[in-house]
Amino acid sequence: MNRRGFLKGAAVAIAAAPATANAAVFKADGIRVSSNKDDPGYRAWCIAKGDGKKVRVYLDGVEQKCASMADEGRGEVRRAVLTPDGNLAIGNDEVLEEIAYGDVRVTIE
Q: Model pTM greater than 0.85?
């Protein structure tokens, strides 16, 4: 197989692959904040809260009210699962969490 035939086949294979709507957006330098003591972003969160500042997390431009971790570099947010009525979803006596991917922005005000 020559080089042109290989590239032509690869282009067809890529075009036929299904696209994902929530692909993570990777940034070279991004902040990570977390309210979990075992997470690497806990220190940044404690510093911000100790200074009396608000940490706001945005995923694809929408503010996430129930986020417990946000990583701009990896493009992920860990947040609580909400019911259709807007209540926290509970399973096995704990709040259920999910990880969402996209364009993450963290602001500290």
A: no
